[in-house]
Design brief:
Blueprint lengths: L1 E8 L2 H12 L5 E3 L2 E6 L4 E7 L7 E7 L3 H13 L5 E8 L2 E9 L5 E10 L16
Parallel strand pairs: 1-4, 5-8
Antiparallel strand pairs: 1-5, 2-3, 3-4, 6-7, 7-8
Length: about 140
């Protein structure tokens, strides 16, 4: 598993150049307005969304896992703790079909626990921050 940090960046080219130099690797995936880095050390999935007018630089946080059982376990933990969450199975987001569960912390920071099923040529959609999770 690895932690995910998704940022809204003003200038994708500048951000890709910076993070490529900082981590010493090229992007794992590069599409119009989007890039991600799959970094082994430290284990990090860095996602960049070109969004010059975004009110916040942090888009969301996440945990990428490699088995569906880990997504299910996260969903069950959230449900068992009585926390609001949103389950999405086989949804396309960020140029990949994914299974995931979303939750927001007490300050409104969005978190996803997800597994990539396969790459996609289409971006898909990211749930709006105000999307109503299930209890």
């Amino acid at each position: 598993m690895r932690l995910q940090l998704a940022l809204n960046v003003r200038d994708l080219e500048a951000a890709v150049a910076f993070y490529s130099a900082m981590f010493g690797i090229a992007p794992n995936k590069r599409k119009p307005g989007y890039a991600n880095f799959a970094i082994d050390a430290p284990p990090l999935k860095l996602v960049l969304f070109e969004a010059p007018d975004a009110p916040e630089r942090l888009n969301h946080l996440g945990v990428e896992v490699f088995e569906d059982e880990d997504v299910s376990a996260a969903s069950e933990r959230l449900r068992g703790a009585g926390l609001d969450h949103l389950v999405e199975d086989e949804k396309t987001c960020c140029y990949a079909k994914q299974n995931k569960v979303w939750a927001s912390d007490p300050d409104g920071s969005r978190w996803e626990w997800y597994r990539v099923i396969e790459d996609s040529e289409g971006f898909g959609e990211v749930p709006a921050p105000e999307a109503q999770p299930e209890a």
